[in-house]
């Protein structure tokens, strides 16, 4: 239950509600999330060479991640619909470990943070890599999705160790 100043997803009767952020200051807020996609060596080679008949795996995953961030309130209950000013999804290939690092960064000027949007961007991009590659690699693993940095808002800056 709310004592008036704390943010909660419950009203005075204990029913789920979207947090009221109307009294919060509007600030520039950013969030970056990361995750890893582990593939077989042959799959990594196909990704690097653009050898998938479905198209450029990373280009499609980038677009899917951006679209996913924009749809976060449709996917995560009680998330605020936000006017994102920037969504960026990047990839770092690590062929030695057959891993793809997925990095998603979201930004806005608003009254609530964009952590969920960054996490959703990474999750959707990683799932898209899985979908694009599953015909040749059923053992793909999606791991370590986490928030690595956020700025703005009352709680200030957070940076993962």
TrEMBL record:
<dbReference type="InterPro" id="IPR036522">
    <property type="entry name" value="MoaC_sf"/>
</dbReference>
<comment type="pathway">
    <text>Cofactor biosynthesis; molybdopterin biosynthesis.</text>
</comment>
<dbReference type="InterPro" id="IPR023045">
    <property type="entry name" value="MoaC"/>
</dbReference>
<dbReference type="InterPro" id="IPR050105">
    <property type="entry name" value="MoCo_biosynth_MoaA/MoaC"/>
</dbReference>
<dbReference type="GO" id="GO:0006777">
    <property type="term" value="P:Mo-molybdopterin cofactor biosynthetic process"/>
</dbReference>
<keyword id="KW-0456">Lyase</keyword>
<feature type="binding site">
    <location>
        <begin position="116"/>
        <end position="117"/>
    </location>
    <ligand>
        <name>substrate</name>
    </ligand>
</feature>
<comment type="function">
    <text>Catalyzes the conversion of (8S)-3',8-cyclo-7,8-dihydroguanosine 5'-triphosphate to cyclic pyranopterin monophosphate (cPMP).</text>
</comment>
<dbReference type="InterPro" id="IPR002820">
    <property type="entry name" value="Mopterin_CF_biosynth-C_dom"/>
</dbReference>
<dbReference type="Pfam" id="PF01967">
    <property type="entry name" value="MoaC"/>
</dbReference>
<comment type="similarity">
    <text>Belongs to the MoaC family.</text>
</comment>
<protein>
    <recommendedName>
        <fullName>Cyclic pyranopterin monophosphate synthase</fullName>
        <ecNumber>4.6.1.17</ecNumber>
    </recommendedName>
</protein>
<feature type="domain" description="Molybdopterin cofactor biosynthesis C (MoaC)">
    <location>
        <begin position="18"/>
        <end position="153"/>
    </location>
</feature>
<comment type="subunit">
    <text>Homohexamer; trimer of dimers.</text>
</comment>
<keyword id="KW-0501">Molybdenum cofactor biosynthesis</keyword>
<dbReference type="GO" id="GO:0061799">
    <property type="term" value="F:cyclic pyranopterin monophosphate synthase activity"/>
</dbReference>
<feature type="binding site">
    <location>
        <begin position="78"/>
        <end position="80"/>
    </location>
    <ligand>
        <name>substrate</name>
    </ligand>
</feature>
<dbReference type="InterPro" id="IPR047594">
    <property type="entry name" value="MoaC_bact/euk"/>
</dbReference>
<feature type="active site">
    <location>
        <position position="131"/>
    </location>
</feature>
